[in-house]
Amino acid sequence: MTSAAEPAIVARRATPPAPAVSTRRRNASSPPAEPVIRTEQLSIFYGSHEAVRGVSVDVPPRQVTAIIGPSGCGKSTLLR
Q1: How confident is the model at residue 54 (pLDDT cuts 50, 70, 90)?
Q2: Distance between CA atoms of 61 and 18, rounded to whole angstroms?
Q3: CB-CB contact of 65 with 36 (8 Å)
Q4: Spatial CA neighbour of 54 closest among 44, 63, 62, 64
């Protein structure tokens, strides 16, 4: 444990990986529906820090869609 006088050392990646997004359709024979959420080349910055880089995703209607990834990779930022 560090005292108040000692700074804590935290290891961080310079560029966090993009979140993995799964958008499987259940019935491949049905025509694709218009997505309820669509992003194309979305990038999000906090000042000069790029939190999300070039994310494109279509979320189909009435499907379970998961956004997975390690802590700090931008999942919540993407949804906001």
Answers
A1: very high
A2: 23
A3: no
A4: 44
